[in-house]
Amino acid sequence: MASNAISIEGDATLRAALDGDEMSGFEELYRKHYRRVYSICLRMTGNLAEAEDLTQEVFIQLYRKLDSFRGEAAFTTWLHRLTVNQVLMHFRKRSVRSEQITEDGEIPDSVDPDTVNPEAMPIVDRIALENAIAELPPGYRTVFVLHDVEGYEHEEIAKLLDCSAGTSKSQLHKARLKLRRLLQQTSKAA
Fold first, then answer.
1. Residues in a beta bridge with 111
2. Cβ neighbour number for residue 69 with a 10 Å cutoff
3. Which residues share a beta bridge with 122?
4. Are the C-beta atoms of residues 178 and 140 closer than 8 Å to each other?
5. What is the pLDDT, as a whole number, of residue 174?
6. Residue 151, by phi and psi: left (phi above 0), alpha (psi -120 to 50) or beta?
7. Nearest-5° angle of CA 53, CA 54, CA 59?
């Protein structure tokens, strides 16, 4: 992997992988981030086997795309986005493969068949949610992803972002309100 002129704050593993120490650096990245990636995949798919397969696919993509990491966001944020995109591509491919036409010649709504209530969770809603999250201001988005997606507590987020726990709580509250508004606008437009 090509050397990048990126200042990677305090992450020797990432720096080693970016600076060309591919195997030991990448292996350490895998060990360090495997559980987080697997957790996201499992949460999004609800299926152990799919989550394991997708986790492997994410790390293959990470290996291929690591040199495109520019350091504009935290590595974990970039890896999270890579993971979510990989899962969404999996859903899109799966829905295209399983798309059927009804007797009326209509294409039914695609749903994730592994959800508890498939009628309540169309894949389009997941895409709308991802788009809405992407529209959040960076501070809101970071706290929302860390708390509601990654499962960090406000005290942990405060340490990671060098802010107070109150700021984390406030940012999360504002992020949720804005997400709600964005999703309502999306559903009205549809």
1. 122
2. 20
3. 111
4. yes
5. 93
6. left
7. 105
| Domains of the chain with CATH codes | 1-110 (1.10.1740.10), 122-190 (1.10.10.10)
Residues 6+ apart with CB under 8 A from 37: 55, 58, 59, 79, 83
Q: How far from 162 is each of 6, 23, 136, 158, CA to CA, in Å?
A: 21, 32, 20, 5
The answer to whether 171 and 143 have CB atoms below 8 angstroms apart is yes
Is the pLDDT assigned to residue 6 strictly greater than 90? no
Measured distance CA(75)–CA(83) in Å, rounded: 12
Could you tell me how far CA 88 lies from the centroid of its own chain? 9
Query: What are the tens digits of pLDDT across the range 125-167?
Result: 777 888 888 888 888 888 888 888 777 788 888 888 889 999 9
Mean pLDDT of the chain: 75
Average pLDDT over residues 18-36: 75
- CA distances to 80, 82, 100, 103, 109 from 106, in Å: 35, 33, 9, 7, 9
pTM of the model: 0.45
Which range (4-13, 15-24, 46-55, 170-179) has the least confidence? Answer: 4-13
Cβ atoms within 10 Å of 188's Cβ, excluding its own: 7
